[in-house]
Every structure is written in structure tokens, then in C-alpha cells.
Amino acid sequence: MTAAGCAGHVTARPEPPTLVGxxxxxxxxxxWVRTELYFGTGLADDPRSGVSDADWRSFMxxxxxxRFPDGLSVFDIYGQWRGTGQTVPARLRSKVIxxxxxxxxxxxxxxxxxxxxxxxxxxDQSVLRVTQPADVSF
Length: 138
Prior knowledge:
This protein is of the alpha+beta class. The chain has a single domain (31-136), classed as Alpha-Beta Plaits (2-Layer Sandwich), CATH 3.30.70.120. It is 22% helix and 33% strand. It contains 2 helices and 4 strands, in the order E-H-E-E-H-E. A hairpin with an 8-residue loop joins strand 2 and strand 3. The radius of gyration is 22 Å and the shape is elongated.
């Protein structure tokens, strides 16, 4: 008994697109850093307090994405912070933005502009910044 079937041309699956070798996405990037920015968005025990999701998205669109349009990560976290004059830490809902970028004066100025914009918008005393060297490959 012979099985009937199609004996046509089999097409190979195309290779997935790659960012390797593109000027903005080098194979091995040197001189890059990873920056984490920590934003308090409201009291942990009062979900109605603080910054709304719509306000956060507005801040991301107007201050962060315009400065770092190639990509970033945002995490929801819980943290504690004891500000100036406080005797006990405040328990906060927070967001962390993680950015990987070429370490240039312009990018560092962009980071400071983001921090300043948040403090101006919310009245917060601080936006924690942690920056360290990063080995990056795409």
C-alpha cells in the first residue's frame, strides 16, 4: 500500500531577525552601564495613595521613553525608605526602571533629567540611582 501525499518543495524556515552587528546593537558593547532608578509610587498599606497607573504611564511617555526609546525594563516592587526628618521608614509601593546604555555625558544627563522630573512632579525627596558597568551583548 502506498501512501499518497504531497511531494512538493519544502521551504526552509527563515532565520529570525538579529540585532547583532547593527551599529546601535553591537555584538559586544564596551563602555556600557546599567542604571536602576527607584521611584516611590505610594504607601504600601494604602493602595489608593500615590501615583495612579495612568500618571505613571504619562511620566514614562513624557520623560523616560523619549530619552531612552530603544528599550528598558520596569519592575513593580515593595520597599522601605526613611526620608529626612522621619523616625521610622515609610513602606512604599515602588517601581524600578532598568536601563542599559552607552556611558556618555548625554545619557547621564538624561538620567538626571528623569530623576529631577519625578521629584518635581511628585514632591519626592529622592529617586535612588544605582549605576554600574555592564557587559552587553544583543
